[in-house]
Write a structure and sequence with these properties.
The complex is a heterodimer of chains A (about 400) and B (about 260).
Chain A: E1 10-11, E2 14-15, H1 24-39, H2 41-55, E3 61-63, H3 65-71, E4 74-79, H4 89-102, E5 107-112, H5 116-128, E6 131-137, H6 138-143, H7 145-153, E7 157-161, H8 168-181, E8 186-189, H9 199-207, H10 209-222, E9 229-233, H11 238-244, E10 254-262, H12 273-276, E11 278-282, E12 285-289, H13 314-322, E13 325-331, H14 332-346, H15 352-358, E14 371-376, H16 384-391
Parallel strand pairs in A: 4-14, 5-6, 5-8, 6-7, 9-10, 9-14, 10-13
Antiparallel strand pairs in A: 1-2, 3-4, 11-12
Chain B: H1 3-9, E1 14-20, H2 29-38, E2 43-48, H3 58-69, H4 74-80, E3 92-96, H5 98-104, H6 106-116, E4 120-122, H7 128-141, E5 145-147, E6 149-150, H8 156-165, E7 170-173, H9 187-197, E8 205-208, H10 214-223, E9 226-229, H11 231-240, H12 245-252
Parallel strand pairs in B: 1-2, 1-9, 2-3, 3-4, 4-5, 6-7, 7-8, 8-9
The chains are: A alpha/beta (about 400), B alpha/beta (about 260).
Protein name (chain A): Tryptophan synthase beta chain
Subunit structure (chain A): Tetramer of two alpha and two beta chains.
InterPro entries (chain A): Trp_synth_b_CS (IPR006653), Trp_synth_beta (IPR006654), Trp_synth_beta/beta-like (IPR023026), TrpB-like_PALP (IPR001926), TrpB-like_PALP_sf (IPR036052)
Amino acid sequence: MSYNVNEKGYYGEFGGAYIPEMLYPNVEELRQNYLKVMAEPSFKKEFNQLLKDYVGRPSPLYFAKRLSETYNTKIYLKREDLNHTGAHKINNTIGQILMAKRLGKNRIIAETGAGQHGVATATVCALMGLECIVYMGEIDIARQAPNVARMKMLGATVVPALSGSRTLKDATNEAIRDWINNPVDTHYIIGSAIGPHPYPDMVTRFQSVISEEIKWQLQEHEGRENPDYVVACIGGGSNAAGTYYHFLHEDDVNIIAVEAAGLGIDSGESAATSVLGKEGIIHGCKTLLMQTKDGQITEPYSISAGLDYPGVGPMHAHLAKTGRAEFMSITDDDAMKAGLKLCQLEGIIPAIESSHALAIFEHKTFKPDDIIVVSLSGRGDKDLDTYINYFKL
Amino acid sequence: MNRIQQKLQENKKLLSIYFTAGYPNLDDTVSIIQDLEKNGVDMIEIGLPFSDPLADGPTIQASSTQALKNCMTTEVLFNQLKDIRKTVQIPLIIMGYFNPMLQYGVEAFCEKCKEIGIDGLIIPDLPVDVYSEQYQSIFEKYGLINVFLITPQTSVERINFIDSISNGFIYMVSSASVTGSQSGFGTEQTDYFKRIAAMNLKNPQIIGFGISDNKTFSQATEYAKGAIIGSAFIKHLNSNGTRSIKSFLQSILIDKK
């Protein structure tokens, strides 16, 4: 069984490029060039140099001693939270901005939900001196003011998405419309492992540096490359895709994907796509998505703005369908508690997204000698208001 | 012969109108279709509303959002249209995004269209290669014409491919844009219209996106078999209600009288 994309852009039955003809030339140009460009020695050199000097990679693989003692197992944290801009998102935006430059594009667009991908995009645009337009739902703009300010300071134009539910999925629609209207000079930096082929594969490859590093870092720590488990939270699924990538075909590595259950799977306020979703088309790919019986895409909910996307990347849909990955879902309450626990045991304030991955230890028992690598995808500074309100700090 | 193919053989320039089913009110669908036919429209595209219409601009999206709020669904639309062929003769096309059709079941959807007397479909996010590999035989089984879009950026090779698997008309998107974002045509567009006209494709072309009044309709039909008006009609319904359909069409077809 292959868990990688095939030549037609599918992971099993999921993926593909279900796009209006107006987008075809843009997506086709990217499809024909992305692997070639990524294989160029000069591209690799520049990408790796920036990851090292600008992003601060490799990110540490940290043995969380007190957390491990608490759960009587061996837990390593992959510290993506220590990256420049505070999350894994920058790995992808660095890769895509270099791709855009090589394709001769001088205008960059992006969508953002909570603003993390928007900030990571605005950052690399400033770095490269390219025009940057970020689409963000009107509702998200109101509730994520600090990130809006960051993007503006970095020189980006933040355009409110006023249509539909005025959140992430609508920001994505608006970015796609912008690309339709500007087919020649513009590159669209999608922030997750979603969208029409080749985006899920391209984003996964840029994020795969996470699992590439885990392998040699774990070798240093434990004398073996493969952990028993890799664990990551999933919204669209880019940090998860990068965390799993080099372990997908390693049979001795178990994969755990953690979705946001919101107020509970059956509460009507959830983002657990693998449970509540059904096969369909969203933002140009066939995948699992939350929708009505009639095929209208519904609005998910999670306390974590980075996880409330109504779909998952097609690679993850395939991992769910084939059973390669175990999918778990974690409620708001459990995630918040796990976040606070990490603060108190390890002195690390995690992003609420990452707290979902940490919460599985309350629900699943591991053996004392199991080695578990958890992707700590982002830091919690951006979530301070949510933590303050939740814990009445 | 399918009603669309028959209509395309008539020796006239065709006016096609798009409207969103269930807008402004849920039960306006049938009366809008009847009024459009009565007032000289040659072909109608009935929009099946979708929550996330990628290829549409703000006007059509807002009408879709309203139609969904009005509780329009695939099932409701089929029910509204079940007797439509008792009163309406012109070709009817359903235009919608792929996900609602996928959830209904593509074959069941096509079968229902045939039963009602729908003549064709326009599905902007069903790409031509996926269609030809997976769905063409189903569409043909139920005698439905699938209409594909081309844009100024579409390569000659791809236009020829689209022409080869089309059996009605080609929907020529006037410019690189979503619906409702243009006002008037410049030389860039007319050069593109001329370029496509000179290809002598097997299928006639109908131009859409950016047709909003008598002037743009005349400009477009100078180079193509017909033209489609969508956003401008929705805007008109929005400001003037369904009773003013006649005056809207008179303003478009003014020099045909």
